[in-house]
Design brief:
The chain has helices at about 15-25, 45-50, 75-85, 95-105, 125-135, 150-155, 175-180, 185-190, 215-225, 240-250, 285-295, 305-310, 325-335, 340-355, 360-365; strands at about 5-10, 35-40, 55-60, 90-95, 115-120, 140-145, 165-170, 200-205, 230-235, 255-260, 275-280, 300, 315-320. By secondary structure, it is an alpha/beta fold.
Amino acid sequence: MAMRKNILILGHNDATQFIDIFNQYARLFDKNHYEVTVAYLTGAENKETRERTIAENVLFLDIPKRGLRYLKINAMRKLHALCKEKQFSIVICHRYKPTYLMLLIAQLCQIDALFFVMHELKTMKNLGRRFLIRALLRDNMVFAGVSNAVRDDMRKDLTHIPKERVITLYNVIDFNLVEPQLFSREEARKQLGLGEDAFIFGNLGRLVPNKDQGTLITAFSKIKPHCPNAKLVIAGSGALEANLRQQVKDLHLQDHVIFTGFIAMGFRYMKAFDCFVLSSVQEAFGRVLLEAMIAKLPIIATAANGIPEVMGDIGMLIKPRDIEDLCNAMQTMYDYSHSQRHEEGERGYQHALVNFSILPFQQQFWQHPVLIMHKD
């Protein structure tokens, strides 16, 4: 067998959603032809992360956060040594700090193709970043956003890069990996302490301003008198948790709004919900929507940034921060029959399978001109 080409997937940390994304990219490469290394810049050796990461090699560079500020000399030294040893053919970086490091190291090492994937809006607004990219840009470098919204945002800032090299690479979901891990409705409700007969509106995400759970709580308070069997479950933790809990208390909803706190691998509990609600005012992509789709949940989501791209023609799209719009959607979903909600969930599942599963992503990735020579 011919010598395999080495691939590096470089990420900032091992947050759950990024492990799944790194696995998405690792699945691109046939083990008969490629040897994939996933490297985490920060964090010490972690058995759970190693077991969940499907790459052949998993490295924990364990660079302190202070080591990723300013010149990042120690980080560069470690990465440069790794690149010299492995002679990577393709490098895929996720988020800006790994991108910054590889932009510099690529000036010293021969790498056939580099992909820099951005997961947030406004990543390239910083003038210093734009100057650095302009100075270090090479023809083998491609910048990608996880949605057209992120891609277009980058194109506005990186005007010196040809549009065909600022592209969209959607996050996708590995059905074979994720679906078997979902708890059944009964098991998920049992673990969350939810009654079998309650109608559950669910929200899963960080408790931070851009997720806007405050509007969701307000809307729930308004429909609650008309939805006596309804409860709202907010799963996650974050800076706004105390404020949101106080809001619930002020609205006298303590018995009807449940905060679970952070739940590891929270997607496993999706089937506990009757309807998933994403109330974000800013969302680059919204991977949690795919997790709701794979659980066959009907979905209400705001038309913010990349969300409409993920939703397509399924579910209910509403205006961000529009309490009346959200109330109407929640009331409609509550009033639906079981069969109507089931049909909505099935449509979402098929939508994700066709548009956001591994196979269509693989086909899209390998079509890029910079990679044609690497496809076996």
